[in-house]
Amino acid sequence: MQRRKKGKTITISPTKFCEKEEKMKASVEVEQEGASRIPAQENSNSSKKKSSIVKQDRLSHLPDEVIHRILSSLDAKIAVQTSVLSMRWRYLWTSLQVLNFHDMSFDDPVLFQCFVEHVLSRRDSSTNLNMLQLVCHDELDDGYIVDSIIDYVILTGIQVLSILAECVVGKLPQLYACHSLTTLKLADIATETTTFDFVSLKHLYLSDCRFECGVEELLDPFGGCTNLRCLFLHGCQYYGKIESFKIYAPQLTDLSISRMRVDQVFDSDCVIELFTPRLQSFSYRDFRYLYDFSIKVNLPFVEKVDIDLGSFDLSDELNEATNLSLQLIELFEVMGSVKFLSLSRGSVYVSCFIGWSVFSFHKSADF
């Protein structure tokens, strides 16, 4: 083969030309191989990163019991939302033993009630429900959702039921069939149920509840709670002409009463009868009001008493302070085994007032 270069003819043998061509092809192949290796390395690096990320997801490798405990501390809405994380998480929320329903995560109370129904209807019925909490700050048109919860929990082995909802509840008595229930907390509800016949109940908390008592003169709300240990009555109103409010609880150890009202106002004619032979702690809080207490049994185990009657000053009426001081003395007489006594400033003022009144009486008699 001949090729001209600047007027000269150069002769190239076919063998040398083939060798050069082969060398060029080889260099191109080497370059292509190097280029192909770069993305392969990048792919391997990215796969390593992905594998390291997968290895770092330790939460999904935890036992179901541990994950259930974590989810049980969350609001039910968040717990349900974890179902989109992976296939393993899809149905974990259906077997939770603790459910916390809070309306703060919903703008519409109707949507909140629908969500509660949705969760209960899709829950794994073969798993016991140990605790259910419902908090609804919006006033409900009716008590349908609360009654639905009561219907559901009766057969679930529930131990703790807490309901805060401003509505009328009609199915409260049906809880007597729930023999596993040990703690009941009710707040803001209204009901015509005046008696709690729950044999297994040990702790009862009633806050700002309204009870329609009708024409009953003697009310014995807790006579059926034979195993009750703790009773908390805060801001509850009992509508009716009640003359005697009986607290019959042979196993009761802790009793707390604050701002309780009969027929919306303080009724000084209503007497609170205590049949609580095992009582250890007694707390009473109100603003200048103290019910008469009729103690039907000895209280030899009372160790702690806390009395708060608000504040008094010298401008208050003499008769009011004197009557309260007499009531306090009668109450202290039946709780003579007290080891720890806590009195508010007003309570101290009232308890000292009886001595001042007697002294004034004798002084005026001398003159």
Give an account of the 3D structure.
The chain has 367 residues and is of the alpha/beta class. The protein contains 7 helices and 20 strands. It has helices at residues 14-56, 64-72, 76-81, 109-122, 144-153, 318-333, 345-366; strands spanning 2-5, 8-11, 98-102, 131-136, 160-165, 183-187, 190-191, 203-207, 210-214, 218-219, 230-234, 237-240, 244-248, 254-258, 261-262, 271-275, 281-285, 292-295, 304-308, 340-343. A 10-stranded parallel sheet has the order 3-4-5-6-8-11-14-17-19-20. A 4-stranded parallel sheet has the order 7-9-12-15, with no helix packed on it. A 4-stranded parallel sheet has the order 10-13-16-18. Strand 4 (131-136), helix 5 (144-153) and strand 5 form a beta-alpha-beta unit. Helix 4 runs parallel beside helix 5 (144-153) and helix 6 (318-333) crosses helix 7.
